[in-house]
Amino acid sequence: MKITTKVAHFTNPLYLESGRILEPYDIAYETYGELNEAKDNVILVCHALSGSHHAAGLYEGDRKPGWWDSLIGDGKAIDTTKYFVICTNTIGSCFGSTSPMSPMFPSSQEYRLKFPVITIKDMVKAQMSLLSSLGIYSVKSIIGGSMGGMQALQFAVDYPNFANSIVSLAATYAAQPWAISFNKVVVEAIRRDPRFNNGTYDRDEFKEHGCDGLAIGRVAGHISYLSPDSMDSKFGRKYVSTDGLFELFGRYEVERYMEYNTNNFSKLFDPLSYLYIVKAINTFNLSRGYESLHEAISRIKVDVHLISFSGDMLFFPKEMEHIANMLKRNGQNYSYNNIDSNYGHDAFLVEVEKFDFLIKEALEKV
């Protein structure tokens, strides 16, 4: 599988939903496979909150492949011997695209809290600019899970003639109070971390020891990404063998897991980027800019494939089912599958074998 990683620079203004302008801006992106002469074999993959443009394959020296490596590659469901796959890093993220820690042109000073609030609609608009710059004016399919699934739906509503199909997994039509509440934990934990210092921390402040606020808040995130059943099967009530049961801070295995994963994450992900992307998720609402959700959904012309997971405790299956019911009433082309899974929200990343054939079938239809 051929992997190419690039950063595209844009000097034209990106007009944001908030009314503000981002100018200039960069978009980091990665491609897999070969673009055919007709440019009609393109698949756009959209990442979730903590993801990046590195969706598949291994970088030299890495032990861990891209976040959807089990789905994207030669002979896999998204077959890179057939398709030219593009995955971009969303604006606001900290993995190469313009973000709060980018310089605020024309000065060399970082945006930090002066960075504009971005939305899912803005992320989609930026990706359209990138694809246009590559001479790509339509795609075979747009595929994403969680926040990536939100982007896929937004593409279908805002640019109804751009794709032949979309596949949206573990997403929703609008962030609900339950999900916003989980996000509130991490927002407040970051803001109240003294080392965050109202966003004026040193650029390398958290590389060695991590951001405590982000680590603590990320625990709430991990809880929402799993489920009671998956936690029971993964950890049970196992206690860390080197910790004493009657030590005040002795830990169960589930606690050690949370500590390890969240501490490492807080060294890698910029807390300001996390705040801005969480805001984009919280403000996601397909009906914004239209008279109603019905009007927004009615704009869709592409084949829509919706996949939810029965154990998802962040974006519940009923939210995806609501979209499916509207598509059905409108007589629009769609499929809806609720995958039997007790893993939780992250099943779209972990249990690929339960749905990869559905994506393969959807791609073969267009």
Structure, explained:
The chain is of the alpha/beta class and 366 residues long. It folds into two domains: 3-175 and 285-364, Rossmann fold; 179-279, Rna Polymerase Sigma Factor, Chain: A (Orthogonal Bundle), CATH 1.10.1740.110. It is 34% helix and 17% strand. It contains eleven helices and twelve strands. An eight-stranded mixed sheet has the order 1-4-8-5-9-10-11-12, sandwiched between helices. Strand 2 (14-15) and strand 3 (21-22) form a beta hairpin.
Helix/strand layout:
Blueprint: E1 3-10, E2 14-15, E3 21-22, E4 25-32, E5 42-46, E6 72-73, E7 78-79, E8 84-88, H1 120-133, E9 139-145, H2 147-158, E10 163-169, H3 177-191, H4 212-225, H5 228-234, H6 253-268, H7 271-282, H8 293-298, E11 303-309, H9 317-330, E12 334-339, H10 347-350, H11 356-364
Parallel strand pairs: 5-8, 5-9, 6-7, 9-10, 10-11, 11-12
Antiparallel strand pairs: 1-4, 2-3, 4-8
Helix pairs in contact: 1-2, 3-4, 3-7, 4-6
